[in-house]
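Field: sequence (string)
Field: structure_tokens (string)

Example rows 1 and 2, in order.
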Amino acid sequence: MNVDLTVLLVILGCALVTVIPRVVPFILVKNVELPKPVIKWLSFIPICILTALVADSVLIQEESRLLVDWPVFVVIIPTVLISIWTKSLSITVLVGIVMMAGVRFLL
């Protein structure tokens, strides 16, 4: 299998552009003690990202209306209840995936 030099350079460039913003902040902040308000603010970021992902999955924009994707919403409710009950990310993810697969299989 031959790889053209241009394709190889594009792949390496994309890898570099992807790695730099993910690694450099950790290197820069590694030896710096962040103020308490910054740490508290950063603690909310995973919640914000999860909320954005869930809202993007559940809400469908059709013309000028927002609609609910009911199959996704039906799976979210028991998944959240399982997460509260087990407090296990692995179990929550597995239950959510299996339930969504089941709903998609049935529909």
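Row 2 begins here:
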Amino acid sequence: MSQATFHAPRRKRKVYESYESPFPIPLADDSYMKDFRICNGELINNNVIVRSIEDIELLYGKGYFGKGIMSRSRPEYNIEQEELRVRWKGSKVKFPIISSIKYQHHLQWAMELLKEQNMDSETVRKVLGEYTSPIFLPDEKWETMKMEGSIDELPPESADKSVTVDKDFMVGEGNPGYDPLSKYVPENPDTDHAPLDKEVLEKMHCHRHDDFIIHCGCKPEKQTGHTESAERGHEYVLVEEDDTAEAEDMDKERGEVKKLKLVCRRNPFRIFEYLQLSHEEAFFLVYALGCLSITYNKEPLTILKLWEVFSAAQPNFQTRYMAYHHFRSKGWVPKVGLKYGTDLLLYRKGPPFYHASYSIIVELVDENFEGPPLRRLTWRSLSGLNRTTMNVSKELLICYLIKPPGFTEKDMDTPECIKRFKVQEILVNRWIASRERLEHDEL
């Protein structure tokens, strides 16, 4: 049998970011409680979603946990179309630029959403017509005046017609806080400072004691950061529209001339970028690091409940998480290996810096390396899997989870079973007869 050779991780040619902490927790003991932050996630359709922008940046920026639902990996989705930004690079605009076709798609989605709320077609057209009406943009002169002082402080000779229009822009539709649909929705009373009653306290969870606050006696933490309403404010976009006009200096036979212009409008249907965590990543953040709280229907889930839910939703979650926990603890960044037909992929530091080095297959055996295989591999399928892994410049690694003597299926019902397992790693390497013969001849 040939001896396996470990190759150095293959570094990417172009790296556009710096390496931060491998875990979203402070490493210094003196600043642990000061800088420690508990992120919030939601369990929706057996998927763990993180909505807060601050939590997304923390979890992905420090450890590369999860992936963006609208992006390939890093959650950086932007409504702006890059080709239009290049076309209008000479224009000094601060809003994203999209095409008229894309804006019409968003408008159609908003119409369907309002119709699902039992609104008639006439009301829907009226509401969206007011919301998506063109908005006047201030020019550079007004921006300079706004930075130097307010409109009321300007001299009388400067109060021309353009300044008057710009002032209306600030107090009316141009103000980001202005809501044209406020007359259709009644205002809600401010209940942020209302005292917490017993029913509310019974539903609040304490992350320090893994229990409800009413039982442990801790005080409820104050909500800080951006609220949901602040994150979901108005989104202004510049729509590239056709301004078709008849040519004055051209023959009538040549028809019309197309002119493109940018019109500022509100986006009627906003698409938010969320961070989606795999079950292994979510449970590692909850169980191993304690920096994530997952809720279901606004009710926090305990560690035992998460273990039960993930085990029921995903086959072989228990064994796959043990392998994930093992490699994460050793400094690797494991990702789902579904696209290569394996359980996990191992990255050094993270996907932005290195290509994946190993494709992992997880197997559960006893102390004699016996037991029903989790993945039925034949010599033919193993050879094909190894060839596929080699074609993408990776190595195939089998991770054996060794059960202790007397271990039963009931012992797998709690995550405490992780401490009783041992791990054995075997690197699968192709045996080449001519190479082996040459090495023996040299010896």
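free_text_note (row 2): The chain has 15 helices and 18 strands.
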